[in-house]
Design a protein that fits this description.
By secondary structure, the protein is mostly helical. It has a single domain, classed as Winged helix-like DNA-binding domain superfamily/Winged helix DNA-binding domain (Arc Repressor Mutant, subunit A, Orthogonal Bundle), CATH 1.10.10.10. The protein is built from five helices and four strands. The strands form two sheets. A two-stranded parallel ribbon has the order 1-2. The longest helix is centred in the middle third of the chain and has 10 residues.
Length: about 90
C-alpha cells in the first residue's frame, strides 16, 4: 500500500477507497486510512489521500498541516474539499 501512495504525484490526490481498490481489496478503505494515519515517514505522501467525497480528513501531523502541504503542491481546497475530478491521481 505504501508503494501505491508513493506513486501519487505532487499536485494530485487519491481517495482511501481508490488506494484500497488499487491494491486489490476494495472494502479495506478504513484499514488504508488507519494505516496511513499511523505512518510517520515523510517519504510516504499520506497527505495526498482524502475521503472519496474530496473532504480533507485526519492526518497524523494535523489537518492544518495536511491542507498546507496540499496547497503548497498546487491543490485548490475550498471548504476543506478538493475537486477530485480535477486533482485525482487516478483518472476514471
Amino acid at each position: 500500500m505504501y508503494n501505491t501512495v508513493r506513486k501519487i504525484k505532487r499536485g494530485r490526490v487519491a481517495a482511501y477507497s481508490d488506494i484500497a481498490c488499487f491494491i486489490g481489496n476494495p472494502r479495506s478503505f478504513r484499514a488504508v486510512g488507519n494505516t496511513l494515519n499511523k505512518n510517520h515517514s515523510k517519504d510516504i505522501p499520506c497527505h495526498r489521500v482524502l475521503r472519496k467525497d474530496g473532504f480533507v480528513g485526519g492526518y497524523n501531523r494535523g489537518v492544518k498541516k495536511k491542507i498546507c502541504l496540499l496547497v503548497k503542491e498546487g491543490v485548490l481546497i475550498k471548504n476543506r474539499r478538493v475537486n477530485l475530478k480535477k486533482y485525482s491521481w487516478i483518472k476514471f
